[in-house]
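seq/struct pair 1
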Amino acid sequence: MKGGKRSKSGKKAVVVDDPPINERQRDAERKRESRAKSKIVEIPACANRRRRNRLEKDDADWLRWYFPDLFWYEFTEQQTAMIKAIRRAILQGGDQAIAASRGEGKSTIAERMLLKYVLAGTVGFALLCHSTGGKAEDSLNEIKEAVETNDRLAADYPEACIPVRALEQTPNRAHYQQVVGKRHDNRKPFPATNSKFSWCGQQVFFPAVPGSPSCGAIIATRGLDAEVRGVKKMGRRPDVIVIDDPDTEQTVNSDEQADKLEKRIDRGLAFAGGQQKSVSRVMVTTIQRRICPSAKFTDPAQKPSWQGKRFRFLVSKPARPDLWEEYTAMRVQAQIDGDEHSRIAHQFYLAHREAMEAGAKTANPNRYDPSRLPDGSQVEVSSLQRYFNEVARVGQEAVSTEYDNDPPEESGPQDSGITAWRIQRQVSGFPRKIVPPGCTLITQGIDCRKVALHWVVRAWKVDESDCLITGYTIDYGVQDVWGTTIGSDEGVDEALIRALRARREAMITACYETADHQIRDIDLTLIDAGWRTEAIYEACRQFGYSFRPSMGFGKSNGCVRTNFSSPVKSTPDKKIGDRWFLSKQPKGTWLVCMDSDFWKSWEHDRWMSDPNRHGALMLFGERGEGKRLSDDEKKHLSYAKHLTAETEVEEVIKGVLKRSWKAKSDSNHYLDASYMSDVAASMKGVRLIKNPRPAAAINAAEWFKPG
């Protein structure tokens, strides 16, 4: 259109001629074609299919070929152990925990191993956990960068790498990207297909290229400083979880934070798998403190299912520590003088190298700085020299912690070291309900709750030669309490009495017997009367003198007033025993008052005793071979967990050793029932304490007479 209309001001408007309609259409078509071409990515064939298949069979070879800049020397023993642990967890399941030296490449190995098994199609959903969310994202960025920039990976895994490279650092392009090429599985061509992937945020979804082993695979990250329960993406749950350095300063220095982290790993992550398959977990870490979570998970005695292993930088110490002390002193003085590299100490080491290295062995001989100074000498010539250079720089304690996974002994609170695994292993070899030879007494403790009774039955054998006694737990279990209502106490007393009556009837039919088939009765039962006291009193009055109500008093029960250690004379209403006494209540009921702190300690001490000698506590069942738990031992896990739900800790405060109890879990009912059975044995005249009070030898049943 030429010319133009005049404006209101009278001036003629200038109008540029429009292009012909067909030219506009051609221009729009060219742009559409250009955009379409930019959306289509052609996937080339694998550069060397035979090499790819061969390397996927050997993790170490795969890592060294595709990442030669990171893994340029033969893997060390601890690096090989990490590689095998991750492989075993992925292929066979289970949990693995490895404490490696700081700087030994554990994070790099974990990240690349995850990538390998995702690319190979073995893992469809991998979860990478770190101490914090920020560190977890950093690990994911390392994996993303490898896919984006590694030419060797791109050559052999084009179906995963090429679509990502085509994004050119613009993740939004993945929404409309299409791929064409030949399938990797059968080499047949496929038409243009939407790659449907995501390459940003806390998780990445691998390109959905037809025939690709990694089609739609997920690698997600989570920080252990936040909620980790219920990780789920696109209706899928993780196949494997790699936990990298879970501890923070807070979890190392705070018992409360450490407990939270332990529960996240033991509960939140343990059940992250699907309905039919448990998730595999691998932890690679460095121990910062002897009582931090990393120390627990790498200790087979505390966490046997994790198959923990710990590695040191300094495998064996040198035979001449005096020469190294002189060397580190030279290094320290040189640092004071401003001589960063301390050539005097270096020359001393070279002159005495043979003597200084005698007997010493390091885990990784490649860990030293071979760079040269202006005078042509090397900064360091061995990994052993590197170790002691660090000792001079930051101190032996720091090096032992970060390099050797051997933190210094704690000066803070120390617990007894009792573990569920140790209790599970302490079995007698006798079947359930069988009274071992030589046992002269059977006692029972019952802990009462609104929904259940937990009971423990023990047989006692006295060794007169050394005045030690062995306690055999011959039976334990749970009696349900029926007829109670959540949020209401209506009918609770009646329900408790019914449950206790059912337990008494079950005792009769249990048939506790000796090896020669002689039936034995339970001599004395103590029932916890700390809750619903009057109902327990009434039950004991109905059942007779072999059932006694009892209450625990001590700091672990929230009571600090009752003093069992002070000598107190017996009165008509109070009879004194060993760390227990009888208190007469209305209607002629005698209440057994127990020093709960003392008897819980006594209980734990007996489980920590040598099971091959007298003076220990034992469980029924057969023992497994070596470190492998038998079926009987595995069944004792719940009981053992209850017994370790509370532990006694010791701490020196102002030069005085203080003891206190720490609760790890609310599920301590078998512990209460167990120590009540101990008190019952003491009441029946068994000398459980080395120097008992004379009253302890008196049969307590004599004090239960009416009036």
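seq/struct pair 2
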Amino acid sequence: MTRWLEYAVFLGIVIAAARPVGLYLLRVFERKPTLADPLLRPIEAMLYRLMGVRPDQEVTAGVYFACFLVFSALGTVLLFLLLVYQQMLPGGPDDRYLTAPMTLDLAANTAVSFATTSTWQAYSGESTLRYFTQLVGLVAQNFLAGAAGLAVGVAFIRGLAREKSETLGNFWVDLVRAILWVLLPWSFVGGLLLVWQGVPMNFSPYTLAHGLEGSTQTIAQGPVAALEFIKNLGTNGGGFFGANGAHPFANPTPLANFLGMLAIAILPASLPIMLGHMVGRPRAGWALLAVMVVLFVAGLAVCDQAERAVPPRLADLGVSAGNMEGKEVRFGVGDSVLTAVVTSNGATGSSNAALDSYQPLGLMAPLVNMLLGEVVFGGLGTGLYSMVLIALVGVFMGGLMVGRTPEYLGKTIAAGEARLIALYTLITPLVVLPLTGWASACAAGQAGVATNSGPHGFTEILFAYASCMANNGQSMAGLNANSVFYNLTTIVAMAAGRFGLAALALALAGRFARQVRRPTTIGTLPCDTVTFAVLVLAAVVLVGALCFLPALALGPAAEFFQP
């Protein structure tokens, strides 16, 4: 029961923080006064001058997406060059510790990964990257890519809030304000808290430790705290070390782990509240958040039930601590399960346990979370429009059942809007399932699962592409993903998950912004009731089952029923 008390405290803090944080974000992106303005306004104005941005000039949905795409492409190219030529950079660690080569395909994969907030890591940072590369390249992308995702989410909200408008705001203004007012100050405070908990922040050489029996161990360190908090706050997830959140320097205590999980969830959970207030219907925002909470608790219950059970092969030995294989003792089952569910829901792959060692149903919970598009909290900005698009599927079905043109928040879902919603719903299975099938059938794909075969090996492949499509980055360690085949095919999934979904969401927002808000009548489907929440839940389950149930049956479900 102690675990469930921790789960309840975590969820209580997230729900309690949603309204004040949502209202703060509303003030930031509507450019209303905040307490930080005297310090940040001059910096903001200076950045606009340097960038040549006119902050009062707004753009259409198409131009907004083009800015987002160009900005992401530029970040990808710069990070790629930094990775390829990092041997020319000054600073540690010593070259003798960088034993893993940074090939061109791995550099391209890593650059796309961090520019899309996927942070899919087919490398170990301590044996591949210099301090300068981690600090300037990866930390910078955690801020920039996270802020860009938040900007797109805010633009989507504006599309629902405005009427008879051709514009959705200014991408560069939203980007700058996301960095200055949200990510920088919060990550600075969070970084200090991590240093207090024991996370290193130095540029010292690796330490060579001598054991009592004469053995030696190389202990990596570096500017770890600079990366570890923003990776969670920006819903990126890429760790300083290969072990990510399981490494004692990256995540030394249960409190540090708990703070990291709050950093992942609070900002995305506040965006439905921001949406509700911006459209003038606060209860509608709470309805969406309620659906997220129900789905979160359901995934938590399934994963907890599976992982607290003792594996049959250990039960005969008197083991009673649950499935501790692949889990850190300092976290136990409770913190490991909470992390698996939060990170898989939040587009943040900062896992603190070996997911390959989870029980089949325990693993199915984070896998389903990612396949559904991380509609629970989700990525920073991107998670909100995933939930709204699923809600629109429910609204559309409800409208068809009663014979009315579907509406949501006073906006009509006509033929053009319905096509965009359908494409958004189908793009994930159209990317994930063919790539999974290809990798499962070809020799290059099968070479990555040499350790495991059968349903578990299939699950490893499905999990990889689902993670990349969801811009999450978690992986099952049994899959050797550092090959030309996986480095290139996962790029396809990461790009589709970031830019394909964003393009459709912004196109839909642009269409909504041009509409006139329809008045509420007796025939309007309320979007702030329990009935509406149940309809959205049904849409989530229906879409997930229709798209992915066969694949899940071949993977974790089949493994569960194996003797």
